[in-house]
Amino acid sequence: MNQPSFPHSQPLVSLSILMPVFNEERTLKAAIDRVFAVHYPCRMELIVVDDGSTDRTARILEAQRSDARTSKDIVVVTHPVNRGKGAAIRTGLDYAAGSHLVILDADLEYLPSDIPSLIAPVLAGYSDHVFGARVRGVNACFPSFRFAIGGRATTLFANVLYDACLTDMHTCLKLIPTDHLRSLTLTEGGFGLDTEMTARLLRCGIRPLEVPVSYHGRSVSEGKKITWRDGVACLAVLTRIRVQHRPDIAPIVHRISVVAAAQGDPPNNPPNSPPTVLHLPKAAG
After folding, report:
1. What is the C-alpha to C-alpha distance for residues 182 and 193, in angstroms, rounded to an integer?
2. How far apart are CA 86 and CA 282, in angstroms?
3. DSSP 112-139
């Protein structure tokens, strides 16, 4: 039976903002500055995972780590080589000290100033899982018709598959209890982890509350990395998780998922490359 995400009472809330980055030297400093310019209704920490960047990302992060205004509230973790966004998120999750976690990309497509509106329902005890939905025509600019339609199509597919009613499955801004996120045992290595996260929540009966957020999508020339292959991988992940307890068809879906992952994940992704921890502040709360 589907369960709405309504806690009876809400203990002290603290926030971990997880920012996976790969070669984001053009926007990284502005992204971090925006995070710290926001007044949050609870304690906040920023966890930045540098996923093997080869540009000036590491130097920018070192400067931020040395800045007295941000040093006590920032965690910087480094992968020696690029392992994919999903791996970066899983690494950052290991260091999260907040009661709730939200992922925020460093590409400036989303505004950190929208995050307090995700926290408000949690503080009010109304919902413990909150998604920031991009609503076409409401402070949202999509890079192309194909991108917008692709996102709506995969969201519709998820809604049919899981009997859900999400507006925007692929939003980056997903506020989820940290312990619950860890319990999902996420495995996807690339962009597919975003889909896996939502699918596993829906699979266990969670129906997130959605609040509108602003969005200004990048074009491919500006660094957008999502392609049609990621859309195919998304459909495979959604289907695999939905039927994982169906032994009659699960092997078939698994083979499809392997092919899709091979198409969509970045190359040269050693799965066991350990992260390098540059800085770790005291736990939040």
Report:
1. 13
2. 25
3. GGGHHHHHHHHHTTS-S-EEEEE-TTSS
Query: Are β-strands 130-134 and 209-213 bridged in parallel, bridged antiparallel, or unpaired?
Result: parallel
pLDDT given for residue 188 in this prediction: 84
Between CA 136 and CA 217 the distance in angstroms is 12
DSSP H or E run through 159 = helix 145-162
pLDDT at residue 280 in the model: 38
The model's pTM is: 0.80
Assigned token pair, 253: 């879906």
Per DSSP, the residues of 213-263 read: E-EEPPPGGGT----HHHHHHHHHHHHHHHTTT-TTTHHHHHHHHHHHHHH
Q: What is the pLDDT of residue 190?
A: 76
Smallest CA-to-CA distance from 132 within 212, 195, 34, 35 is with 212
Identity at 60, one-letter amino acid code: I
As beta bridge partners, residue 100 has 15, 177
What pLDDT does 68 receive?
78
pLDDT the model gives residue 268: 43
- Reported as half-sphere exposure (CB side, CA atoms, 13 A), residue 82 has a value of 14
Q: Which helix (H) or strand (E) holds 79?
A: strand 74-79
**Average pLDDT, 10 consecutive residues per value, the chain (285 residues):** 45 93 96 97 97 96 88 94 93 97 96 97 96 75 69 92 94 97 88 91 95 79 63 89 65 51 47 49 40
**Distance of alpha carbon 49 from alpha carbon 30, whole angstroms:** 16
pLDDT at 216: 86
Radius of gyration of the chain (CA): 18
In order of their start, the domains of the chain are 12-147+166-221+275-279 (3.90.550.10)
Q: Which residue type is seen at 120?
A: A
pLDDT given at position 223: 52
Structure tokens at 154: 């995969």
